[in-house]
Write a structure and sequence with these properties.
This protein is mainly α. It contains 13 helices and 3 strands; from the N terminus they run H-H-H-H-H-H-H-E-E-E-H-H-H-H-H-H. A hairpin with an 8-residue loop joins strand 2 and strand 3.
């Protein structure tokens, strides 16, 4: 490991960035250095300009990939190398206004039924049943399951925020039966084939592959990811009449505007609004 990478890792740790964010930032910086074949501390503002033109015009990377690269390099140069360059202010990719993919309850059930390995099936079921981000699901500890109050205590979520989400009655016996298969003292979803002493959880990539294989196996053609389960959970709650502010709290959103996105994803909400408009105009037209 180079001294520069070690210093950046230390700075990210002091800044309180999550392990996943640290990993993605290091990877983005590595790709930047590989593109020019030299250490980033030897590169200039013009190199940054040329690199982001390359990402946009040649690689045609997604907005999210470009944003990660920008945030990683901005952190490296401003926080670790103490170089404040004006270019960081105008290379930010434009905002997109895309609606996320949503699966119906039937589609979610079909996908989960097609997950071959039981431990992946239980993990994905938990992510859906509690509206979790994938890292939150994989890093669930036994102690976070509050069966007395029927709540799950999400600790260290996005932004370092804690929250409580409801523990569905049907989920509790499933989690208990799953835990009996490994009896790990800490993790609900420990890494496989490493025994009770492992300090690692199941890998993100493994869960993702299991999900995509199940989507393909059951013939669903939507571009769904594991995160789609979270979007679907929130949309189904909204359709069931759950208050939007409560959904916001359970999802861990800081802004109600983020949660309000789900009002655009539910056909039931649109149908109810259309019916209300029809009744409003019934005596006028």
């Amino acid at each position: 490991m180079t001294l520069l990478r070690q210093r950046m890792l230390e700075d990210m740790h002091l800044r309180g960035l999550s392990p996943n964010t640290q990993r993605r930032y290091v990877q983005a910086v590595r790709l930047f250095a590989q593109h020019f074949g030299t250490s980033p501390d030897q590169l200039t503002e013009e190199h940054l300009r040329q690199y982001f033109l390359y990402l946009r015009n040649d690689k045609r990377v997604s907005r999210s990939t470009s944003t990660v690269a920008l945030c990683a390099l901005k952190f490296l140069y401003e926080r670790t190398l103490h170089r404040s360059w004006p270019i960081f202010e105008f290379i930010r990719p434009p905002k997109e206004h895309k609606l996320p993919v949503v699966l119906s309850v039937d589609e979610v059930q079909r996908i989960l039924d097609c997950v071959r390995r039981p431990y992946y099936r239980v993990c994905l079921t938990t992510i859906f049943a509690a509206g979790l981000r994938i890292q939150e699901g994989l890093h669930l500890r036994v102690s976070q399951i509050d069966s007395a109050r029927m709540m799950i205590h999400i600790q260290g979520g996005k932004g370092g925020k804690d929250r409580y989400v409801p523990l569905a009655p049907q989920l509790l016996p499933l989690l208990r039966a799953h835990w009996m298969t490994h009896r790990h003292p800490v993790w609900l979803f420990p890494a496989r084939r490493t025994g009770q002493t492992t300090t690692e959880t199941m890998a993100v990539d493994g869960v993702g592959r299991a999900f995509h294989a199940a989507v393909a196996a059951c013939g669903i053609h939507k571009p769904a990811t594991v995160h789609t389960l979270r979007h679907s959970w929130a949309t189904h709650l909204l359709e069931a009449g759950v208050n939007l502010r409560l959904i916001q709290t359970w999802l861990g959103h800081s802004s109600p505007h983020t949660t309000a996105l789900y009002t655009h994803l539910t056909g039931k909400t649109e149908a109810q609004a259309t019916e209300a408009i029809n009744q409003l105009l019934e005596g006028l037209l």
